[in-house]
Amino acid sequence: MIRPCRHTLDAALRAEWIGHLCGLCLALRDAHGHLARVATNYDGLLISVLVAAQTGQRTRIAGPCALRGLRSATVATGEGARLAAVVSLVLASATLKDHAADGDGPLARPALARAATRLAGRWARHAAADAAALGLDTAVLLDAVARQPGLERTATSLLAVTEPTETATAAAFAHTAVLAERPENIAPLTEAGRLFGRLAHLLDAVEDLPADERSGAWNPLVATGTDLAAARRHADDAVLGVRLALADVTWASRASGRLAHRLLVHELDRAVQHAFAHAAKPSLDKEPIRGRGLLAGCGTAVVLFCTCQVCCGEYEGPWSGKRRDGWCQNCSCDGCEGCDGCCDCCNCCDCGS
């Protein structure tokens, strides 16, 4: 949901953000092996950001990585990165298990579904062990995931559908205050996490709405009779709520809290604007979306990354075939306050004109 580019973060904040992203990836690798690095995600690194903001940044120098152009980097380390890895792996294991059970995409093949189920179980067990060492009970997260399908079948209220996601993210955000030994932050971060979870679920529904309407797939907006105007009101209220909750959080220093504030206030608002701006555009794509198989998807993913298409333009998801915006396309500069110029290859706003 939160994917800032260099239009919206100054050099120092962008380096810090990349450090948390790489720190999460390396924490997954070190604790669970290279394959676990696929659980790395932009929203998960917020856990690492919040711990660092409350305690002061802990970093180390990481060696060259192909995804950084074979450059070394200063990356986040310590309990914040470990907690982010645990949360990301728990949710990835639950998602993988669901896809295997539903036979989605390449997992329609029984052999692949069985392998995915075994992998999901191993990830869940390893994440639970790591979480226990950090004082987090992953049962809260897994219970929220398990309750979601039942609510989707019976709920008539949009907020009832988003409740499990709210509960899971509230627990994760609150535990950053526990690790930071700042009990005064538990209540406001619980509230910020709850509203962040609501937004994550809501924006996902908004972005998937056109495709879900074409395919007949379940969508919370359609199922609960919520139009885009009402969904936007919920989203704006949640953004405001996160802003107010963060105002009550005590950071280690003003400088330590800059990235957390930027991501959870400004970038969150941009994510809402972006999602609803695209939802308002009529779709001309009436053809059914055709996914790719496992091997074809892997090959396509390599091409997308090596040619920078995932950064610099619209592309089709390597496995799903769904249209996606490049990472730099999500910046929505809106006047580019504090922006030093556009990404040379993207031209995704008019900062430089």
UniProtKB/TrEMBL annotation:
List the InterPro entries.
DUF5685 (IPR043740)
Q: Please state what the protein is called.
A: Expression regulator
Natural source organism: Pseudonocardia thermophila
